[in-house]
Amino acid sequence: MHLDLVAINSRGIGRCSEIAALLRIPYSPCGSALIHPPMSSPRPPTIQVDDDFLNSSYQSAFRSVEVSESQRRIDNLEDRLSVQISKGDEAYQAVNDFYVANAAALGAAGSALASVANLDVKSIENTISTFVETSAVVMKGLDALGQLHPFVGVVVLAFKLVITLDITRRQNNKKVLAVKIQMQELMCILFQLRHMRDPEEKGPDGTTLSDRFASLMQAIAKDITACGSACDVYMKKSFLAKTLKSKIYESRLAGYVTLFATHKRDIEFALSMHTALGVDLVNKKLDGQDEHFQVIEETMEAIFRKLDTPRERDVQKIIDDNGGPKACCDNDSTLQELVLKSGEGGDIASARRLVAKELSEDVDELFRRNGELFDRKLEAQNKQLADTISVTGEHIITVLSGGAHDKILDPDMQAIWKDQGWRSSVKARHFVLALNDYYTDELSKLDHAKAAPTPTSPVFSDAGAMDDRWALAYINVTHLQHILEAVDDDGTGYVSIKEANDFATSRPEGWSLLSWVAFWAAGWHATVTWYKNRIYVLLNAMLSLVRRVKSGNRQAADKYLYGSAMARVELLLRSTRSAPETAYDDLRLTKVADDFQEAEEKKLKDKLEGLVYELDDVDTIRLLTGPRRIERYLFPLLHLLLRRHYDIIRLAHLHILHDSEWDVMSASLTAVFKAVDERVANIEAIFKATSADVHDRLRHFAFGMFALSYGNPEPVPKNNSLCTFEVEDGYDEEDEDIGPESDDDEAKTKSVLAKTNAGILRHPMQDAPQGMYDFETRHPIPSTTDPLDGVWVGQIQVKEKEKDVMVYEGTITMVLSRVGDTLKGGAENYLGVLGVTGTVDGKKVAFKITWPDGFAVQCTGSYSEERDMIVGEWVDADDEDRDSDSESGSDSDSDSANSATEDVATTTWPVIFTRVPAEVFRFRYTEAQFATNRVQARWGFAVAAVVEQVRRDSCSWAFLKKRFTERRRYMELETRDIATWGKYSPWRALTPDERSELYRLRADLCSCDGRFYRALTWFEMRKAIDFESTCDFCHRNIRETWLFCLQCMEPQYKDNIDLCVQCIDKPATRDQFVHAPSHVLVKVRRRLHDGEFAQVIPKATAIAARVKESFDPGEDKANDQGRHAGSTSKDSGPQVCCCCGKGVSCPCWVCVTCRVKYAYVCVECEEKGMSALASGTSPAHTLDHPLVRILDSTPIPEPASTDSRLAELETKMAGLDTRLVGLDSRIVALEDKLDQRFGAFEALLQGMLEKFTSE
C-alpha cells in the first residue's frame, strides 16, 4: 500500500509518519516528491485522505485499552522471545563474523600438532613464539562463542584462566608451551558449534545441544585445569630437578596431549550425533583415530627431544652414562659435574640433598598438592580479571562521557593537564610542581570566595577542601623524589596519561587527590619504617623461639631461618632508610598513613588467606599485587608472611611439623624475592639509559630498599644487622604479640602457645611416624579366587662369592591381582611401599618391582601350584651396572647393589615368594635345606612358627624383650649405615660382621616392622643439628657439633675452614686457607645466624687472645694435677672448670657467651657434654654456648694483609712452578731411559729372529 499525503498541518505530519511506520508503508510528507516503489514493480494505487481521517486513525491506533491478564502474559512472553531471538541472532552473526575475519589464525591454531610434529626445531620454535598472539585471538573468539552457546562457558573460563596465568610468567618453558598449543587446538574444535544457532535445539534423539555437551564441557574444563597444574609443577622445578625426572614429567605432559585428542574425538562424535549427518563416515574417522592416539605420545616425545636445549642434552647424557640419577648422587665427582653443567651452583652437600629429595618425592602426591594450590591461584586470577574488566569498563564510560579528547579521569588532574597544555606525557618534575601550583591557587580562590560578600562557585570546591589544606605542605621540592616514584610508574622521568590515571584512580575510596599525593610524599615512608621495625622484631623473636622448638623440627626450622631467603630479608631491611623522627609529628598525616596501612593490609591479608599463604612463584605474587610495583606491597607482604611463619614456629614447640610445611614457608619468601629481582632488573635497564652509576641511583630510589639487592645480593655476615638492631623511637608496639619470651616459665609458655590455631598448618602433623602399617589399606587383598591373587611374602636374593645368600632388600610383602594376562598390585619392604606390574603366560610369571626412586628389578619365574610358590630369577630392570660400594639405605634407594659384584646388573639372582605369613617367614627353611631333608625342614619350620605365634598372641615378656632388643639393635646399625653412605660426621662405619647382621635383621623383620623401625631411625636422626657445612678434612657433612677456625677466616666472615668433631686435630687446605691444628677453633652445638656469627667471631678472638696471655708457657699441654680449684690469673680470674670445679690448663675451652669474665670448661667435661655446676664459676653456662679452644699459650698471629697474602701465594706458585719444571725434567729423563731400553730390547729380538731364521 502506498500513501500520498497532501495539505496536512505540521501536527498531522508527525502522526502520519508514526502511522506509516506502524503499517510499514512508505510515507512522503506534503510538498515532497512522492515515494515510489522500484520501477520493476507496479505502481500501487494512490489513496486520498483528509486531516480528520488521519487524526481519528491516530487516536484509534494509540488509544489506551485495557488488556486482559492472559493477554498481558502472552505479550510479555512474545517480547522476551523476540529479545532472545534478537540477541541469539546477534551472537550468531558476531561469532561467525569473527571467525571469518580471523580464519587464518584460528585455522593455524586448530592444526598445531600436525604443523609442528614434522618440522625442524626452528619451525617448531617459531610456532611456539607466536603462541601468545594466537591464544589472544582464540580467547576472543571463544568469548564470542560463549555468547551464542553459554554451555561452553565453563571450559572457556578454565582455558582463559590457565593461559592468562601462564602468560604472566617472565620465562616460559618451550615444552610447556608445546603442550598448551595442543590444549589450544582442542579449544579450536569448539568453533564448529558456530554453525548452530540455538543451544536448546534438540537432536534426533530429543537431547538438546546444551544437555549433550554439558558433562563433556565439565570434563574438559577439569582436565585443562589439571594440565595447567601439571605444567605449573614442571615450571617450578629447578633445571636439575626437571632433568633428573624428565621421563616422568614429560610422560605426564604427553598424557594430557593424548587426553585432549580424546576430547576432540568426543566433541566431533557429539556433534555428529546431534546433527545425524554423516554418522557412519564420522564413526569410520573416529575408528581410525584410535591408532592415531597411540602415536600421539610418541610424537610429543619427538617434539620434546627437538626442544631439548644443549644443556639439557649434556646433563641427561651424564645421568645416562653414569647409571642413572641415584648412581650420580652416590658419586661425588659425577655429582659435581652435574652441578657445574646445570649452572645452578651450590656445594656437593646441597646438590646431594636436592637429588635425594627429588628421587624420593612421590610424584602423584606432588601433583595432588599442587592441584589444590593451583585451583586457588585460578580463583584469585578470576577475581583479578573481573576487577580489571569492571574498572576498565568504568574508565571507558567516563572517557566517552567526557569527550574523545578528554582522557584524564580525575577532575583536578584533568584541570591541571588542560591548564598546562600537556599532551600525551609530561616531565615528572614539571608534573609535581604543577600540582603544587594548582592546589595553591585553588585554595587561595577558596579563601577569597569565602571572604567575598557574594561567593562564586570555584572550580575547586569540596566539603573537605579546608581539611586537606595540611596536605599542601608536603607537595614541594623536599618530597619531590617520593612523589615522582609514586606517579612515574616506569621510572622514565615522564608521566603519561595512563600513569596519571592509574595513580589517581588507585587511591582509596573517599580520599581526595591532595591527601593521596601527600601520603606518597611523606606518609608512605613512615609506613615502610613501621613495617621495617616490626619485621626486625619478628625476626629476633624467631631467633629466640627456634632454639626451643621440638627436636624433631630442629633441622627444618634451622634450614628455614638460616636459609638464603631469610638472608635476603635482612639485606632488604638493612638497605632501607628509616623515615625522619618527625614523620609522625603531623597527626593528620599519621591518620592518613594509618588508614591506608590498615585498609591495604586487610586487602592483602584477604588475598593471602585465599592462597593459604602459599606463594610458589612470581606469577602468584602478581595475583596479590596486580600490575603495580612490588615495592608498594613488599613490606606489608613480608610482614604478613613472617607473622604467619612465626605462628607456625610457635606450633613447632608443641608438634612435629611436616617437612613440607617448612618448604612452603621458604618457597614463599623465595618467590617474593624473585619478584624483587625482576623489579630490580627493570629499574636497572631504565637507570642505565640515563645514568652511569646505577647503584647510586638505587640508593636513593624507594628509600634505598633495593640497593643491596642489586648485582649479586650475597649476604655479608660481618655487616648483618639482625642482632644489633634496636627498635627506633616512635615505632615500638607495647601490645605486640611475640611471646613466649625466653625467660617465661613453662606454664606461661604453654598458655601463650595454646592461643595459636593449629588450623593454619597446610600439612598433617608428624608427632609420630604416619602410615607405617597401612599397606593392606593401600593395597587391599582381592576377593577373587585366582591362584596368583592375594598376599605373597618373599625375597630377592644375591649369592656372593664364597658366601651364603644375602638379602639386601629385606623381606618383601606383595599383593597381586590378576586381570586376564596382566598382574598389578603393590609391595612393601623396609624402605617403603613399592609398585608392582607384570604379566602371566600359563604358569610363567613376570613382574617388575619399582622403588620410589625409580630403581626396579625384573623378576621372571614360574608358579608352582603344588607348593603354592613363585620361584625364579631377578635382574636389574635397567640392565645397568650398580655402583658396588653405594649404600642403598637412603630413603629412596635400594641395597641390592651394596656389596654385589660389578656384574650384578647382568647376572641373574634367585627370587622366591611364598604364602608363608610375614611374621614367621624368618623361620622358613632354605631351598637347600628343603632339598636335603624336606621332612626335617618342614617340621623345624612348623615348630618354630607355632612357638613364635604363641608368644606373639600371649605377648609374653620373652617375646617383648626379644622384640625391643631387636628394634634397638636394628636402629643402631641402620643409623650408622645411613651416616656412612650419607657422608655424615660424626660416624662409625659398620664392620663386615655388623653389616651382615644388619642384612640379617632386614631379612628377619616382617616388612611392616622393618618399615616402621627405619622410619623411627630417620625420626631420631632428624633431631641432630645439621649445619649444612662440609668438613674441610674428611669432606663429610657436619652434624651435631661444628668447629670453625678463627685464623682461617675471610675478612667479611663469608668463608672459613670448617671441621667436624672427629677432625679437630687435622690440618686442612682449601682455596686460600691453610689450616694448622694449632689454630684457634670455635665449637658450637647449634646453628648460628649470620648476625650471631658476626658477634661471636670478634668476641671469641678477643677472649682467646687474653686467655692465652694468662697461661704460662710452661703449662702448655700439662695435666692439671699440679693445679688446684683455686688457681687464679690476674687477668682471667679463677682458672677452674665450671662443670667439675677442677683447675684447667692448656688445652681447654672458654665460653664465648657467659657474662662472667671467663667460663672455663676442661677437655674431659666438654667431651662428655657435662652441665655447669650450680655452685660453679658460671652456673648459667649451657651446652648451646659457643666455646673457643685454647690449645696453648702461643699468641694469635696478626692476620696477614692482602699484599702479604698475595706475595705468599705468589711464592707458593713459584715453588710449584719449580717443582713442575723439575718433574718435567725427570719425565724427559725417564723417557730417554725407556727409549734406550726399548731400543736394546728390539735389537735383542731382532738378533733372536735372525738366529731362528738362519737355523
UniProtKB/TrEMBL annotation:
Coiled coil: none annotated. Residues 876-902, 1112-1134 are annotated as: Disordered. PROSITE patterns: EF_HAND_2. GO terms for molecular function: calcium ion binding. SUPFAM superfamilies: RING/U-box. InterPro entries: EF_hand_dom. Residues 876-894 have a biased composition (Acidic residues). This is EF-hand domain-containing protein. It comes from Roridomyces roridus. The lineage of its organism: Eukaryota, Fungi, Dikarya, Basidiomycota, Agaricomycotina.
